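Hey,
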Amino acid sequence: MKKLVSVLLMASMTGLLLMSTGCGAKKQLVMATNAEFPPYEFHEGDAIVGIDAEIAQAIADEVGAELVIEDMAFDSVLAAVQTGKADMGIAGLTVTEDRLKNVDFSNPYATAAQVIIVLNDSDIATPDDLAGKTVGVQLGTTGDIYADDIEDATVERYNKGFEAVQALIQGKVDAVIIDNEPAKVFVEQNEGIKIIDEAFTYEEYAIAVKKGNTELLNKINDAIKKLQDSGKLQEIVDKYITAE
């Protein structure tokens, strides 16, 4: 009988210990991204770093959660949020009417421009000059979406932005449409290419959450406002984007 009581007592204590450990563990906040988009998200050794990664960490700290970053193809990011595999999508995402049908978006946290990269000796000087040309884009990006509106253009889609840039260098496409900040990095890293003066479009980046998840959306918006009001958001941007 004493042995039975002892076993039950040990089991009870083990159960309490497990409950305590569970209660003490931080809840995870899963971020879906495509870490091929410097300076917003990119690989640095085994880590994923960048503006979006630091904003996500600040949001996780604000809500008391452990940040987990899942790297995937860009066109899978919103699907991961929509299906609940990720809590939020942060990947230089622009709010569009089509995307709003599937996910909800936070307040904007950054303003960006889609620009055009060409070879140094290209005759393309304005967005209008893309008519009838072969244009490279990253699959699922707003550059991909907007490229369909270019008159008589052939659009070549690539899984990664740098693949589109390599296609340009190899003469497979006439131009690449991509976000301004990654474009600067690609031009700096590769000789013989440049960004034309006139932007293709201007847009704002926001954070995607599952449709109807207003609790998380409100927390994200609160965290973004605190980051903006405190100047922390600008500090993060300045860390990765230096003034020209």
